């Protein structure tokens, strides 16, 4: 029976779209969808696609569909386009996942030459899960077991474009252990008050791009873990949310270096931070964060537009006794304009053990948007030496250390 279904599906696909560039189009809706649930249909279509010797397409057509969980694993023999035109919604119970090991709602692993496209929506339906998330109070929190929405691991040479990801139960999307993956014209949305709904989390990857996208969430718009090389974030609009964060880094000494992150031509609107680097104190990690560029950024009412925090220690989970051993160097901050919702427009809280090195700062124009009676915007400096060019508003610190602590 199983075999017959599969063959029928393949023939349908070819017959229905004879002019397609794809040898086969596997339309999920033709696979005995029950009450709109495509869980089994998608897995069957995906299996055909990964085994296809030539390029194929898996199609989720227009319409409203529900999906329990799907692990869309490779290896695939040939390119696959995953064309999502409809709205795919998760079930609301965060623990009702068939694969208990799965940390994702839709996981795409061990794949190459994948295109995700189609203008559709992945709706994580996270409202119930968020109420069960107590991570701000509890380090071993429940939500560590809540699934990601759309998770890419061990993926090469792939493009994710023209899709919307919304209301994930936890991190909305991630890209881990991958090489040459581009996110383009992606829209990621969750309410400002939803916990840990990071937009895209990127770690252990090389040559990743996020372009022309809009991200508004309850946590970081984009966050970076360790072992990163060559990332470009360009033309991204971020807010609400916590901004774009490199780190937190250095929590364990297994972490590896972060090299080459450029954040260019992005706009931050009502976010807690603009661009941020954060590292843990009192750990043995000596990783390096180098070749970082923050350029052409517009801040609109951002609480901390630019912040380096080498004393990152949330919920008193660590001690501040020993300075961070993470070395930040070769940092360029250029052409940052707009308004700061607090007076702390620029905060450079670098490590006393490893002061920030080779920093260039130029063309800054950030104005405090709050009560003018409080004074203007300021720069705070600890353990940083920089070269400055062009306009500096607020003025940069005269001394490399100004002992004001980082506000929490
Ligand atoms: C991705 O590229 C890496 C490094 O070139 C390679 O080792 C790995 O097998 C590739 N993975 C896939 C799924 O193609
Ligand atoms: C990177 O991936 C894209 C697909 O997004 C592909 O067209 C391109 O050839 C890949 N680049 C390399 C160097 O393999
Ligand atoms: C910068 O971003 C804006 C707004 O997203 C866009 O209109 C403009 O084309 C971008 N500029 C460049 C040089 O990419
Ligand atoms: C600016 O940001 C502050 C703090 O996040 C917020 O309370 C305020 O409403 C924002 N103002 C505007 C005009 O959005
Ligand atoms: C959707 O939720 C699961 C669980 O939170 C999470 O692991 C996954 O990362 C989220 N999706 C994406 C794409 O993050």
Automatic annotation (TrEMBL):
Main location: secreted
Highest taxon in the source lineage: Eukaryota
Family matches, as Pfam families: Glyco_hydro_28
Family matches, as InterPro entries: Glyco_hydro_28, PbH1, Pectin_lyas_fold, Pectin_lyase_fold/virulence
Active-site residues per Swiss-Prot or TrEMBL entry: 242
Keyword Metal-binding annotated: no
Keyword Plastid appears in the UniProt entry: no
Compartment(s) of residence: Secreted, Cell wall
Single GO biological process annotation from the record: carbohydrate metabolic process
Family: Belongs to the glycosyl hydrolase 28 family.
The protein, known as: Polygalacturonase
Coiled coil region boundaries: none
Taxonomic source organism: Salvia splendens
Signal peptide: 1-23
SMART domains named among the record's database cross-references: PbH1
Organism phylogeny: Eukaryota, Viridiplantae, Streptophyta, Embryophyta, Tracheophyta
PROSITE patterns in the record: POLYGALACTURONASE
One GO molecular-function entry: polygalacturonase activity
Record key words, sorted: Cell wall, Cell wall biogenesis/degradation, Glycosidase, Hydrolase, Secreted, Signal
